[in-house]
Amino acid sequence: MLEQIKESADYIRKQVKTVPEAGIILGTGLGGLVREIKTECEIPYNEIPNFPVSTVEGHKGQLIFGTLGGKAIVAMQGRFHFYEGYSMHEVTFPVRVMQALGIQVLFVSNASGGLNPGFEVGDIMFITDHINLMGTNPLIGRNNDVLGPRFPDMSEAYDRRILDMASNIASRAGIPFRTGVYAGVTGPTFETPAEYRYIHILGADAVGMSTVPEVIVARHMSLPVFAVSVISDLGVPGKIVEVSHQIVIDAASKAEPRMTRIISELLEEIEL
After folding, report:
1. Would the pTM count as exceeding 0.85?
2. For the chain, which terminus, N or C, has the lower number of CB atoms within 10 Å?
3. Could you list the residue range(s) of the whole structural domain that residue 112 is in?
4. How many domains does the chain fold into?
């Protein structure tokens, strides 16, 4: 793995002059944040050695280097999912590469189904914790101590200091937000009503098909994480309707300007 990471990072360094301070993973329907980035370079995934290629609509599939909120950033416009048939190693490989390139913090976004009865479509939820319901873990297998410890601590998977900063920014800007627990499942099917009830009983406020593996790998490497979900549909009894991927994309896109403002201002305020 170290050789693959090095090969990918070396290739990217030949294309990019600056060292990114922050990494951003843009989820379904949220790729438009790149319009706010002062772009230096765009690299399609299929040009990067060892990189998978995104196969999902709404995930363009390129790394974008530039400046946002006064910080040098690298953004994944499109992520990889376990349900696409990739291994957990492949799903999380870009996080390893971004860390090798120099990022000091990771921002993650996703579109998810709301389970909390108080939530509405279009809400923004800051993730405070997660539940891994994917049946596997990206750290399974022989551990490489160069990357991180065999048994990484997950008591603060989502950085409390950054959560407080995001809450203050949203409050000052008059942007409503929720906080809650995200459950990660494999997909690709959306949940049945019984599954929605089950996951909510377990303690989750939202459910989606990403984020958890990436956060686990980031924390394995001691990268602080801030993650935000856009509630794109509801898994609440009496509010469950037929869901399509396009509905998810549309709902996420409408919430995107608010999410973009929060992440931009976070980058301005955070000390790296």
Report:
1. yes
2. C
3. 2-269
4. 1
